[in-house]
Design goal:
Blueprint lengths: L7 E4 L3 H10 L4 E4 L1 H11 L7 H12 L4 H14 L6 H8 L1 H4 L16 H11 L8 H28 L3 H6 L1 H7 L4 H14 L3 E8 L2 E7 L7 E6 L4 E4 L3 H5 L4 H9 L34 H23 L3 H24 L3 H4 L28 H47 L1
Parallel strand pairs: 1-2
Antiparallel strand pairs: 3-4, 4-5, 5-6
Length: 427
């Protein structure tokens, strides 16, 4: 990752992973998957989780509160209403509230993700065909095929974003017309939804201090009031909903204030590079640490950095003949300098990688399976039902030979009764 730590990491409630993240990625925000939390709630709150009133309050605590005050009041009301003061699982869950409550993470970028759906969707893609009977070579080939399909889908999406036209939005002009020239198709749909929902909000200026303005926005049918601070001097704007801090996209409240103040373009400081059409261009990397413990990994990181920068140079240089000449000339100069540096370096021999193209890669030695399959893990109730079916089958199978023995004895006795009179008659 270029020596940088991820902004947010989503996992389940595994304590070992939590300890590892705290040690390896101390700057990352560790979040818990809400989908796993809901499933665990079904197990630990069996008698009450099906109650619609409890479910609404519980899910509001997870992702429906706006700030910490609203979360605390909702949580206390839920605990008091349903007499859950002594519930151990809820008490332990409350202690880790900063990891799962969205209201306590509005100041940190997470792209509005709430679960581990990205890794789960990736698992479902490979579980469609992967099984324990596949060889290592087959797994690698399938992985490469799926990776190429994903890259091709990304290239197709890039083409549609750069060559698609949104005539109706461009003709609209203003901020919405400016957004069509910047954002990708999916992000533009989200921006358009926020923009049009903001048009129906009541916007009232409540305070003014020179170029700094304070607005209050609300819906006519809602009691929730949000505040927006706006500075006309540098077009800085912030909203109490914190959508830009978590998603990187201006919210409907901020867009409404910009429209009121006749701002026709999105301020530059609020255009996140990752959501634009040119997200892959001009990627800036932090300088890599040359004292990396694994020299092989450090070399691949340097190669990835040069590859991204070189792609941008080649793309822009290919537009004109003069640009192509400049790129070639500078590359030749850079190549001469690099060759001189390699000759004077004593560490080249240790860092070079020699791979035999004719080497045949074989599958590892097969080992007997220990029962691990891709089948769904069965619950304890399903296992008990299966055991009952087996015991019933054993009882019926044991009863069949006894029934056969009794029928044979009855037949023998009846045969003897028929034979005895004939024998006595002869005597």
């Amino acid at each position: 990752m270029g020596g940088r730590q991820p902004k947010s990491i989503f996992t389940d409630q595994d304590q070992a992973m939590a300890n590892a993240i705290k040690k390896v990625f101390p700057e990352s925000r560790h979040r818990l998957c809400l989908w796993h939390l809901a499933n665990n709630a079904k197990k630990h709150l069996v008698g009450i989780y099906g109650n619609p009133n409890f479910n609404s309050k519980f899910h509001k605590c997870l992702s429906g509160c706006l700030d910490e005050i609203e979360f605390q009041s909702t949580w206390n009301d839920m605990i008091k209403t349903f007499n859950l003061e002594n519930n151990g699982w809820l008490n332990r869950l409350y202690e880790t509230r900063e990891k799962w409550c969205t209201a306590l993470n509005v100041d940190f970028f997470s792209a509005r993700m709430k679960s581990t759906q990205r890794s789960e969707s990736m698992n479902s893609v490979f579980h469609q065909i992967l099984s324990t009977s596949l060889s290592l070579i087959q797994v690698i080939k399938y992985y490469e095929q799926k990776a190429e399909d994903m890259r091709q889908g990304e290239r197709d999406e890039d083409f549609r974003c750069k060559n698609g036209s949104f005539v109706d939005l461009i003709n609209h002009g203003g901020i919405l017309g400016h957004a069509t020239t910047i954002y990708t198709i999916r992000v533009l749909q989200m921006f358009k939804e926020e923009f049009f929902k903001g048009l129906g909000l009541n916007c009232v200026e409540v305070e003014k201090d020179g170029t700094k303005l304070l607005y209050e926005l609300d819906k006519s049918c809602s009691k929730r009031v949000l505040k927006v601070d706006f500075d006309k001097s540098d077009f800085s704007i912030s909203c109490t909903c914190k959508l830009f801090e978590t998603l990187g996209l201006l919210c409907r409240h901020a867009l409404r204030v910009l429209v009121v103040n006749n701002v026709n373009e999105i301020p530059v400081q609020y255009i996140m590079q990752r959501w634009t059409k040119d997200a892959k261009k001009g990627v800036v990397y932090e300088p890599l640490n040359s004292t990396c413990g694994n020299e092989k990994s450090a070399r691949f990181l340097r190669f990835s950095e040069l590859n991204h920068l070189g792609h941008n140079v080649f793309d822009k240089g290919s537009f004109t003949i003069e640009g192509t000449k400049i790129v070639k000339m500078k590359l030749m100069e850079a190549l001469e300098l690099i060759e001189k540096d390699l000759e004077s370096s004593k560490e080249v021999a240790a860092t070079e990688m020699h791979v035999d193209d004719n080497q045949v890669v074989l599958d590892p030695q097969c080992v007997r399976k220990k029962g691990l399959t891709n089948a769904r893990i069965k619950s304890q109730l399903e296992k008990k039902m299966k055991k009952k079916k087996k015991t019933k089958g054993v009882k019926t199978s044991n009863m069949v030979p006894k029934m056969r023995e009794t029928t044979i004895e009855i037949q023998q006795n009846s045969a003897l009764q028929n034979i005895q009179p004939e024998v006595f008659g002869k005597n």
